[in-house]
Design a protein that fits this description.
By secondary structure, the protein is an alpha/beta fold. The chain folds into three domains: about 180 residues, Glutaconate Coenzyme A-transferase, CATH 3.40.1080; about 240 residues, 3-Layer(aba) Sandwich (Glutaconate Coenzyme A-transferase), CATH 3.40.1080; about 170 residues, 3-Layer(aba) Sandwich (Aminopeptidase), CATH 3.40.630.30. Helix content is about 25%, strand content about 25%. It contains 21 helices and 34 strands. The strands form nine sheets. The chain has an eight-stranded mixed sheet, with helices on both faces. The protein has a seven-stranded parallel sheet with strand order 4-3-2-1-5-7-9. A six-stranded mixed sheet has the order 11-10-16-21-25-26, sandwiched between helices. A hairpin with a 4-residue loop joins strand 22 and strand 23. Helix 15 runs antiparallel to helix 16 and helix 20 crosses helix 21. The longest helix is centred in the C-terminal third of the chain and has 15 residues. The termini are far apart. The model has no long low-confidence stretch (mean pLDDT about 90).
């Protein structure tokens, strides 16, 4: 459609169109990289614009003017989210921040809680039917248009045409200003770092093939996406499309085939990045852009099975409270879409949330895992909303766990130099036992190499990994699930109580090198439970004593033999040359396992009822 022929009276120069805005007006501005830069500059330039109240989601162009006192006398900026370019102005009190869930902002407009007189937006040229596209900025922009008395649109040929609910007919727009200019481009400043690489490694362990993802904006989420490139058939339902997703699109990692809501389509509301991603979404039917009240509605999000929400935070306290929008009293970003997706993923079948953040800030001087949130910090995400917290030191699982377990989980993924102090603070708060040992002050990334899995003949997969202090409750449950005879074979006496003190003694000796414990876990419903454990402990310089225990319903499935091989490999890496084991004479099954692996083992009686087995790693046979 040719606007010059269809509605020539609506075509205006920017100055003419802006002159229609009255003093004291409430003006909505299109979001993020889709904002109408030319119209914004024209409005700021017009000195007749006085006492204008501006509402915007993500602001860029205004950042060039907020240090001008004359601008601040004429314009009042009220932002639903503070972009990086606006943080300095927010810290200095030059703009106002409106905390709101993104899914609820359109209702603020339609209910007139926030009344709008004017909407300034940017659109693509109309098609032959008269429909312009909101392109990369659909989110709350559609609602802004629908609820403003006057709509002025900048028509930019560079604005992509996006599929979905992004179209606005020319009859819905009062004035058009045709002006071509590059769209705003925004890329994260943070470069690839070792911290981001390690966080990406842990996050990738939680993401299964066929999951549908929501991924936040920023340097860390951008980096995390690089470590999902070995997954298959991922889906996307997210507020924001960025360049970080491009490799996953281009490599066929994101297929959307397994999605239960709008399969085959990437569901999004915004696109922010470079010209490359803008060109990729342009007229691409795999993308389905909808407004925020749809994309961010928790009940809509929950219609995606296995919806995994991945977002970041400024700090997390030891009880699981998350701060995202302020550093103390300084507003830093906004609530945005995090809470919407946290609650939507909680209702999703098989869905969960991941909060990913570096363990420290300010070049390592302060911990982001804290005993309590900073004074003035806002709690955007409550203790009940988070499933997993990930730092470069590991994964903390919080869902369904009490304060004691949360403290231990989170302290374990804090930077090693802060762990002891976090435990001491937790003791002062009476969160944990007074005799609780802190997690080791070492980087346990090397333990990732000790993880493995074994598929049993019945199809069950047993996952093996080192035992951690955070496993205390599962360790206890494992002990009490064993029959008395099994406990007797393992401990040589009828142990009745497996107390906190007993576990503490175990942790005190565990260093993951000279002393090691490996547990086997199976999936039971929504959690993993321990069904086996093998340990070795230093006995002599080059010899370690080894022992096993397997739950009765998993006997005779090869688990103990597998554990023996795993522990042997680890022990060799730590300069051991052999194992010894003291076994009850009546425990024929365990004696057989040792003899099968080490046919030349030296077997002798010890204390009458016990058998001492001495094994040299050089004599081991089999794989």
């Amino acid at each position: 459609m040719d606007l010059h022929e269809y509605c020539p009276s609506k075509l205006k120069r920017s100055e003419e169109a802006i002159s229609q805005i009255k003093r004291g007006s409430r003006v909505f501005i299109g979001t993020g990289c889709g904002e109408p830069q030319h119209l914004i500059r024209a409005m700021v330039k017009d000195m007749n614009m006085q006492d204008i109240m501006v509402y915007q989601m993500l602001s860029s162009t205004f950042s060039k003017f907020v240090d001008d006192p004359s601008f601040l006398r004429r314009f009042s900026l009220r932002l639903f989210f503070i972009s990086k370019s606006m943080q300095k102005a927010a810290f200095e009190g030059k703009i106002d921040y409106i905390p709101s869930y993104l899914s609820q902002i359109p209702k603020l407009f339609s209910s007139k809680i926030i009344g709008l007189d004017v909407a300034l937006v940017q659109v693509s040229p109309p098609d032959r039917f008269g429909y312009c596209s909101l392109g990369i900025s659909v989110d709350i922009t559609r609602s802004g248009i629908e609820n403003a008395d006057l709509v002025i649109a900048q028509v930019n040929p560079r604005m992509p045409r996006t599929w979905g609910d992004s179209f606005v007919h020319v009859d819905e727009i009062d004035y058009f200003v045709i002006h071509e200019e590059p769209l705003v481009e925004v890329l994260p400043n943070e470069q690839e770092t070792e911290v981001a690489r390690r966080i990406g490694l842990y996050v990738s362990q939680l993401v299964e093939d066929g999951a549908t993802l929501q991924i936040g904006f920023g340097g860390l989420p951008y980096a995390i996406m690089q470590y999902l490139d070995k997954k298959n058939d991922l889906g996307i339902h997210t507020q924001l499309i960025t360049d970080g997703l491009l490799p996953l699109f281009e490599k066929g990692i994101v297929t959307n085939k397994k999605k239960t809501l709008l399969p085959g389509r990437v569901v999004a509301s915004l696109c922010m990045g470079s010209e490359k991603i803008y060109n990729y979404v342009d007229n691409n039917p795999k993308f389905y852009f909808r407004s925020s009240e749809f994309v961010n509605d928790p009940t809509v999000i929950a219609r995606n099975d296995k919806l995994i929400s991945i977002s970041s935070a400024l700090e997390v306290d030891l009880t699981g409270q998350v701060c995202t929008d302020s550093m103390g009293y300084l507003f830093y970003s906004g609530i945005g879409d995090q809470v919407d997706f946290l609650r939507g993923s909680a209702m999703s079948k098989g869905g969960f949330t991941i909060i990913a953040l570096p363990s420290t800030a300010q070049n390592g001087r302060v911990s982001r895992i804290v005993s309590h949130l900073s004074e003035g910090a806002g709690v955007a995400t409550t203790r009940g909303d988070v499933n997993f917290v990930v730092t470069e030191y590991g994964i903390a699982e919080l869902q369904g766990k009490g304060i004691y377990q949360r403290v231990m989980e989170l302290a374990e993924i804090a930077h090693p130099k802060f762990r002891e102090d976090l435990i001491e603070q937790a003791k002062k708060h009476h969160y944990i036992f007074a005799d609780q040992l802190p997690p080791p002050k070492v980087d346990l990334l090397f333990l990732e190499g000790y993880k493995s899995a074994l598929q049993l003949e019945n199809g069950i997969v047993v996952e093996f990994r080192p035992l951690l202090p955070t496993d205390e409750f599962e360790y206890r449950n494992f002990f009490y699930s064993l029959e008395e005879r099994t406990i007797y074979f393992r401990f040589f006496y009828k142990m009745k109580i497996f107390s906190h003190e007993v576990v503490q003694k175990h942790w005190a000796s565990l260093d993951y090198r000279k002393n090691m414990s490996i547990i086997g876990l199976v999936q039971e419903g929504g959690h993993k439970e321990i069904i086996a454990m093998g340990s070795y402990a230093k006995e002599e310089d080059n010899i370690a004593e080894v022992a096993f225990v397997v739950r009765e319903d998993f006997h005779n499935m090869g688990i103990a033999s597998y554990l023996l091989k795993v522990l042997e490999k680890i022990a060799q890496e730590n300069d051991y040359t052999g194992f010894s084991a003291t076994v009850l004479r009546e425990n024929a099954a365990m004696i057989h396992i040792f003899k099968e692996r080490y046919p030349n083992a030296n077997i002798s009686l010890s204390n009458g009822s016990d058998v001492l087995i001495e094994m040299n790693f050089d004599d081991a046979i089999g794989n």
